[in-house]
Structures are given as structure tokens and as C-alpha cells.
Amino acid sequence: MVAALAGRAGGAAMRHRWVQAAALPCLLAACSNTSPGTTTAGGIQLHPVVSDQQVADYAKKPYEPFSRVNAVAVALREWRAWGMAVNDAPPDSGMPVSIRPDRQPGLWQRVGDYWWAGQDALTAGSGWTGKYGDFGTPYTGDPAAWSAAFISYLMRTAGAGDRFPYSPLHATYINAAAQGNAILQALPTETTPPVQGDLICYGRRGAERLRLSDLPAPSFYGHCDFIVAADPGQLTVIGGNVSAGVTMKHIPLTPSGNIATADGTPVDRRYPWFVVLHVLYDDNATIPVALAPPVTYAPPFEPTPVALPPQDPEPTFRRIP
Questions:
Q1: How far is CA 317 from CA 13, 24, 96, in A?
Q2: Disulfide engineering: 69 pairs with which of 6, 172, 184, 287, CB 3.0-4.6 Å?
Q3: 198/194 Cα distance (integer angstroms)
């Protein structure tokens, strides 16, 4: 994904760094006066791009404090919109491009909303969707991985404002958390019981051995899931671009509520979880979430099958990067 992002970033970075504003030809000398922060070129008044100019006012101002309740509610809303899929199967094989949920009508546009609101204006990825890239160019294969765009969308929509490092890469905000970000703390998996509204992350595609002590690290492949419920024995998490959609899964815990044992080994053998990102909300109230009874796990991890709603056939594909 890093290579793909780098290629697409070049095109996006070159395009329209300034937005043209309608202007009449200056007929009087007084017309040369422009408002602060503007530039005049060829008689056309140009205005600098504001990084959050595409963000709705309710999130930009924001109307309510940055809260755990809103972040969880938005995550659950998106999960319901994608059919309430639950996939606790270990990773296995991929799926044909033609049947990816994020390429289907109504859903590829939703991925575009995550990119549009989750990235700063006119940056790489802000115009991408689940089916089309820059300027509406169709993808010939899988779309750009959008799981980090989904997390960025959650944080922006919940009111994080300019305190969250919005990015198409999980590595950006994982590293920021390790360096003292205003609202993110990078904490060890073996001693930190995650709570509702936190993120848990793992490295992938060559970064599986990454550890908290390695942070900040050069740009790496990764994935983070958002915790919507923390119950005795298990977490319920939601992630974007999981099985090519917004999908729920369950993560087993130690008796003390950690996702790893004392030596840092994840209880969940499916994924190499290496860091808990604790989110510092302005409003720390929690929201009760009753989705399913706790799942019983026995090491090595053997997930209990979870029935999907009747309208959604059980997926036979693995999580798409």
C-alpha cells in the first residue's frame, strides 16, 4: 500500500493547491486590493486551501466535545450500514475483485466519504473511493487500502479536530502516539487493559515483529481496529477494509483484561497485536453496547463461529489489507 500511496500522492499533490474564486476583470485601480491571505494571478483571485474546509461544521467546530460515546456510535452506525458483518475466522484467502463489498453500488461511495472527510483537503487520497481513484479513474485491481482512512473518519466525525494526525497510513498516528500526541497514548499490550473507544494495532507485511519499543518506526504496513465494547474475556472491535467492508470481530483477553500475556505474546494468535492506543476524549462517558454474549476461547485461539444476519451470507474470504 505504501508504494501505491506514494504513486497516487504525486498526482494528488500536484493538483489544484489553490482554489479559484470567481472574479471580474479589474477595471479600476482599486480592484488590485485583495483580502488578507489571498494571491492574485492573471486577474483571478486565489484563496489558500484550508486543511479542513471539506469537513462538516458539526465536526469542525465541533458542536459537541470530542467524546467516546460519539466515536462508538459512529463506528456502530457504519457497521450497520455495511450489513453488520461479523468475521471471527482466521485469515485465509482473498476474494475476487468483482464481489468485494467496497466496490458495490452505494458502498464504494461510502468509502469515498471516509477518504474525503478523513483526510485533509486536496491531500493524497482525499478524492479516492472504493472503486475509483483520482479524477474518477477506475481501479484495475483492489482499491487503495482504506482502513486508516476509516479510523481517521471516525476521529474527525467524533470531534477530534486538528489534534488527530489524519493519514492514509496507520503508521502515521501510531508513531504520533508514541511521540506524545495530544489525544493518543501508545501503551504496552501486556499491561494495559484496553477500554471502549481505544484502538489496538498490529504490524503486517514485514512488520509482524514490530514492538512498542521500536516506535517511532519508519513507515510500515499496519492495521488498527476500534474497540466498541470491552467485556470480561473479550473485546468487540470494528475495522475498516476488513473483509473489504466495515466488519466486526472479537479479540480474546487475559484474565486481567490484557490482549497479551506478560511476555507480550498476543492471546489472539490470528494477529500480532503490539500496541494499545489509548484515546484521550474530552468527554469520557461510556455507552452500553450489548451485541453478543462473550465468546469462550481456549489457547491456541479457536474462534467460535458467529452467525451473520440472514440477509448476509457468511464470508469465506479473509480480511483484505
A1: 35, 57, 9
A2: 287
A3: 6
